[in-house]
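Narrative of activities, Objective 1.

The group set out to show that a structural description can be obtained from nothing but a protein's sequence at a throughput compatible with the screening campaign. Below is one input-output pair from the validation batch, recorded exactly as produced.
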Amino acid sequence: MSLAAVSDDDHRFMARALELARRGEGYVEPNPMVGCVLVHGGSVVGEGWHQRYGGPHAEIEALRAAGSSAAGATAYVTLEPCDHTGKTPPCTAALQRAGVGRVVVACRDFNPLVQGRGLARLQAAGIPCELGLLAREGGELLAPFAKLMVEHRPWVIAKWAMTLDGKLATSAGDSQWISGEQSRAVVHQLRGRVDAIVAGRGSVERDDPLLTARPPGPRKPTRIILDSQALLSLESQLVRTVTDAPVMIAAAFNAPAERRQALAAAGVEVWQSSQLAVTPSARWLELLDELGRRLMTNVLVEGGARVLGSLLDASAMDEVHVFVAPKLVGGAGPSPIAGQGIEPINAALRLKSATIDELGSDVYIRGRLR
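Output recorded for this entry:
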């Protein structure tokens, strides 16, 4: 199944499949984003992508578009076709019925129900398969799904806005607004495609945010507050809007029963860590395990400094989105990441595949740590 000699056209068609796959972002999770392009005689005869969770897979959409032209075509698929029946029938069977002549795949599936079975089934049916074309690009696209399948935890995105001198707020605690309107619009787009938004009680008490996407995106994220003693005010905007979007308190094992009961009566879910989680980092890992059990794929963490610091100390940060405003405030305002930190500078974490853009007067930096 190794790649034979591939042409520029092969790369172009797989790049198109990856482009199509991205359209499913926020709509298909916990399923993976997948795209498929069917090519016959050098021309595209069908395209498709996985458009929504529980809906037809990318291969099925492309086969429908191609009709009888799929016979003898090459299928470029960003992820190994499935060979099991879940919410939909196996794609391997559909490809065989359509008479596809060749299948080119970017990445092997990370789902233990697949992991090579799809390619093996196609090859056993006499359909040549090639694996690994644009595998790096496909792997980047599929990283959140892969982490959920392999580690059973969601992909964790850390976000913050800061001044040019590295402050989340002034020494008086004022932080609205550090970043500009264009940056805030990007944050709302991020919120609209994730399964949960996490913040600390300190930030919530100071700003009384809604932690919702405006305008709404394809997902309605659960708003999770790290609140060890379950002290979130019943008068907060979060609690008052719990019927519009779920709210979950991540509390310690010893959170007072009366506080837990009061929040539960207001419609807030209260989840408690175990007695073994005695540090903020340990509580993070238990929370991520719980979110993984709930099949949450992407989680956005909005700080503040102690929350982001404990996340970094737990080695649980996968991706960062940073908005730097051309402002100076000086003083003793908080920096973005507290915690124990990393002592030797040569051990500092470096962003991979970092991109830098301008959003109005702000600088937008984003990249991955894994």
